[in-house]
Amino acid sequence: MALSNVCIRPVTEKEVHDAWLIESLSFSSEEGASEETCKFRQRVAPELFWGYFENDRLIAITHGTKTSLSKLTRESMFTHDPEGTVVGVHSLCTHPEHRKKGVAKALMQQFIQYVRDDLVNITKICLVSHDFLVPFYEGLGYKCEGLSQVTFGPDPWYDMVHNLPTDSRPWISRWTQAANQHSSPATDGLKLVPLTRHAQLPNIMLSPATAHLPRVLCQHVKINTPTTVCVSRCRHNEWVASAIRLRHNSME
C-alpha cells in the first residue's frame, strides 16, 4: 500500500470553497459557517485558516480570527481585530470519509504550535465546544470554563481556553544570537533576525543567491531588507542548511 502524502498548511483563497464543503458536511445550517463567512475569515486572517491535505486533497480544516475579548462571543466570530491578543477558533472539522483517524487532532496540534511559536503577543486560544467534545479538547491542552453565552443551534456550547506561556518562544533570541556569532566572507554584513509575522512581510522577488550561513533550525527563510535574513523555526526541529548570500543585480 502506498504511503499517503500529508501536508498541514494555510488554505489559499482558491481552496476556500472546498473548505466550506467540509464545513457544510460537518455542521447543521444553524451551526456551520456560510461560504461567505469562510471567505471573509480567510481574507482577513489567512494565517489562521489551516487545512490538512492528504495526497493534495483537503480533508480537514480549522479557522479563526483574532479578538481582544477574553472569551468568544457570537459577534467576535464574525469580526477580526488584527491587534487582538486572543485567537478565536471558530471551526475544526474533518470530511466524513476521514474521521476517527486522528486527523483533526493532528491539525489542531499543528495549529496550536503555530500560534504559540510564530504569532506575536497572543495570550490564549479560545473556542466553544459541545459537551461530548470537551474531553477531546482537554486532551489538546484546553480547559473548560463552563457554559458559554454563544448560541448556535439548540444545543449548549462550552467555553474552552488554551492559555499560552508568555515565554513560549525562547528559541528566537537563542538561535538569532548563535547564528549572528558565526561569520564568514560570504556572510559579512548580513544580520539574522526572527521571522515572526509571516503574513505581514511584503512579497519580495529573490535574485539568485549563494549560501554559506551556518546550519540553523528554520522553516521559512525570507529576505526582509538587502542585508537581513529572517528565519523562523522548523516544525519538527530538523537541521536545515540555509545559505543565503544576498546578491541583487545592482550589487553584482
UniProtKB/TrEMBL annotation:
N-acetyltransferase domain residues: 6-165
Question: Known catalysed reaction(s)?
Answer: a 2-arylethylamine + acetyl-CoA = an N-acetyl-2-arylethylamine + CoA + H(+)
Any Gene Ontology biological process: melatonin biosynthetic process
Q: Pathway it acts in?
A: Aromatic compound metabolism; melatonin biosynthesis; melatonin from serotonin: step 1/2
Q: Which Pfam families did the record assign?
A: Acetyltransf_9 (PF13527)
User: SUPFAM superfamilies annotated for this entry?
Assistant: Acyl-CoA N-acyltransferases (Nat) (SSF55729)
InterPro entries noted in UniProt: Acyl_CoA_acyltransferase (IPR016181), GNAT_dom (IPR000182), SNAT-like (IPR051635)
The record's GO CC annotations read: cytoplasm
Query: What keywords sit in the KW lines?
Result: Acyltransferase, Melatonin biosynthesis, Transferase
Reported EC number(s) for this entry are 2.3.1.87
Recorded GO molecular functions are: aralkylamine N-acetyltransferase activity
Family per UniProt? Belongs to the acetyltransferase family. AANAT subfamily.
Supply the name of the protein: Serotonin N-acetyltransferase
Q: Which organism is it from?
A: Acanthaster planci
Q: What is the lineage of its organism?
A: Eukaryota, Metazoa, Echinodermata, Eleutherozoa, Asterozoa
